[in-house]
Amino acid sequence: MIRLEDILTPDRSLVNVPGGSKKRALEYIANLVAREMPDLDQQTIFESLIAREKLGSTGFGNGIAIPHCRLPGCPAPISVLLRLEAPIDFDAIDGAPVDLLFVLLVPEAATDEHLQLLRQIASMLDRSEIRERLRQVESSEALYQVVADAQKGQ
Q: Considering only 17-21, 83-87, 108-112, which range has the smallest mean pLDDT?
């Protein structure tokens, strides 16, 4: 089974990211992934995330969104964790603005694996103590460490 700390890196765990809007946050994610993985096209990543949002918001509640999509040319699951400097409207199910984004990009063919990873993310973020720690840490390394520690505890 793939674990979150295997697909998330400290370089893709960032605090105090400028948000602005849902669209700007998704553009930021696409740019970040494309910079780190030049084989993946920034515009394709962005369009895939937007297309998924059009099916229904990935705003999960409690200030969290889990933007995710299948991505052409994606070799393996990739995750990004962002804490925004200010909450943004993400059309979340509870109407609350979002300040934590846990992104999951998976290969086009991924099915069970994709769902399993989404479940891992959702169950981790369902725990209020994890959300609090993610919101309190000061550095990107510490943000990543919260996820690694939470996974060890499961």
A: 108-112
Give 56's contacts (C-beta < 8 A, 6+ positions apart): none
Looking at residue 152, its pLDDT comes to: 80
Q: How far is it, in rounded angstroms, from Cα 138 to Cα 154? A: 24
Residue 5 has pLDDT above 90, yes or no: no
Which residues are part of the catalytic machinery? 68
**C-alpha dihedral sign at 115, 73, 147, 56:** negative
Q: Is the dihedral of CA 115, 116, 120, 123 positive or negative?
A: positive
Predicted pLDDT at 153: 67
Compute the distance between CA of residue 149 and CA of residue 154 in angstroms, rounded to an integer.
9
Tell me how far apart the alpha carbons of residues 38 and 127 are, in angstroms, rounded to a whole number.
35
The predicted model scores a pTM of 0.94
- For 152, the token pair is 């060890």
Provide, for the chain, the percentages of residues in helix, strand and coil under a 3-state DSSP scheme, each rounded to the nearest 5: 45, 25, 30
